[in-house]
Amino acid sequence: MSEPLPIATVRTQVTVPLRFPDGYATTARVFSFDGLVDAREHLAFGLGDWVAARDRGSADGPATLVRLHSECLTGDVFGSQRCDCGPQLREAVERISEAGGFLLYLRQEGRGIGLYPKLDAYALQDTGLDTYEANVALGHGEDERDYTAAAQMLAALGVTRLALLSNNPEKVEQLTRLGVTVTESVPTGLYVSPANAGYLAAKASRAARAADRPVVA
After folding, report:
1. Residue 188 burial (CB count, 10 A)
2. Least CB-packed of 53, 100, 119, 124 within 10 Å?
């Protein structure tokens, strides 16, 4: 039985027009929060007809489509091809806009280790370590992200059942442990380039290992 989550509340909500470098445009309702356990400035983007999608999910209709996207300054903003974060963000915004739902933009750079350590890890990757080995070599865990704040955000938004847009089984495992009902994982696209092939191979290997672990509710 999971412990009750500390209650978070919506702090501010505003409408923001979005436009991506390829010209795709949509409108989001952007939410900030009070009471998040890590005190970080995470955001939720309500996309498409998110109200109807949320209400259908609460009424045992189709679960609300949600993506948890961890911040990646180099990929999301500057288009770095060392990862696939930018293309995944772009895909998620369009797919969620079409279906209605939420994108949670989580300030967990570098799988939770921070921006400067991520760049230190890049330097180690240039010597032959993979993305997870580099984090460990720096004294960090392979992946230090914690989704407790995400579960609080979902509760504050009234999302009770969700379909998670992700290839990462650890997100499902953590959310389930936190008492969030995840009805399915919806896979994202794969965005392979010569610069990120090794990175994606390491992610696939770790995801396969994570999928073999039992989910404990």
Report:
1. 18
2. 119
190 falls in which pLDDT band (50, 70, 90)?
A: confident
Question: 71-105, pLDDT tens digit by residue?
Answer: 999 999 999 999 999 999 999 999 999 999 999 99
Residue 131 included in any domain: yes
Is 143 among the residues known to form the active site? yes
- Taking the C-alpha atoms of residue 102 and residue 123, their distance in angstroms, rounded to an integer, is 34
Range of the domain at 123: 115-142
CA 100 to chain centre: 17
**Which residue in 111, 145, 161, 206 is the catalytic one?**
145
Residue 213 pLDDT: 46
Question: Could you tell me if 120 and 194 lie in one domain?
Answer: no
- Position 211 scores a pLDDT of 45
> For residue 196, how far is the Cα from the chain centroid?
19
130 is a catalytic site residue: no
Could you tell me if residue 56 is inside a domain? yes
- pLDDT tens-digit readout, 157-178: 999 999 999 999 999 999 999 9
Residue 157 CA to its chain's centroid (Å)? 16
Instruction: Indicate whether 215 belongs to any domain.
Output: no
Determine the Cα–Cα distance for residues 146 and 111; give it in Å rounded to an integer: 9
